[in-house]
Amino acid sequence: MTIFLILAPYGVYTVLMFMTSPMVAVFAGSAICLATIAIDVARGRSVKILAAGSAILFAGIGLFLALHPTLSTLGVKLSVDIGIFVISLGSMLARRPFTLQYAIESVPAETAAMPGFLTANYIITGAWTIAALLMMAANIVLLYFPGLPVWSGIAVAFAARNSAIYFTKWYPEYRQIKYGAPAGALPEAQ
Fold first, then answer.
1. Within a 10 A sphere around the Cβ of 147, how many other Cβ atoms?
2. What is the spatial distance between Cα 40 and Cα 120, in angstroms, rounded to a whole number?
3. 20 to 30 A from 113, CA-CA: which of 60, 101, 122, 167?
4. How far is CA 144 from each of CA 138, 139, 153, 154, rounded to the nearest angstrom?
């Protein structure tokens, strides 16, 4: 369920990009980010860097589109990918990988205090940063080579995102087997 709530704003944004205007898509993405923040707050959880940053990102792009409606759909996609990359990389540079907030809330305190816990979160956040970088690169290629089929960018985005999801689920299990951590000792994508 957690991974669904984390990815819901991006899923809605992506679907709406095919069905409606980019401005509607980014404002909807922002609204869903705000809804996920409200759900976290209602459950007594912290406001997440990714959700808050994405809400601001989507709203900012939406406001830019309201003032400059000439930004292309590909420009909007590239802007979102750049923003997600900056949020992800920035969280690591600030020494608070964005996955850490989700992980801390899903494991016992003694598990979160384990030495490898922070490292595992840096690695998982790094996987998401690489996925955002790949999606950004695919959109840049499409921008400079408009003759390429649009599905190629979609394929890269799909592969990058799904690889990051798989890695997020696989890596904690791998660390548990490799390092003999007790069951539930590392964060899992739920």
1. 5
2. 23
3. 167
4. 10, 9, 12, 16
Q: How far apart are CA 8 and CA 65, in angstroms?
A: 22
Tens digits of per-residue pLDDT, 76-111?
Answer: 999 999 999 999 999 999 999 999 999 998 888 887
Average pLDDT, rounded, for the chain: 89
Residue 116 vs residue 180, higher pLDDT: 116
Amino acid 180: pLDDT: 63
| Amino acid 151: pLDDT | 86
Q: What is the number of other CB atoms lying within 10 angstroms of the CB of residue 55?
A: 21
Global pTM reads 0.87
Using CA atoms in the order 168, 173, 178, 183, what is the torsion angle rounded to 10 degrees? Answer: 130
Rg (CA), the chain: 17
Which positions ≥6 away from 54 have C-beta within 8 Å?
9, 10, 29, 30, 33, 83, 84, 87
H or E stretch including 113?
none
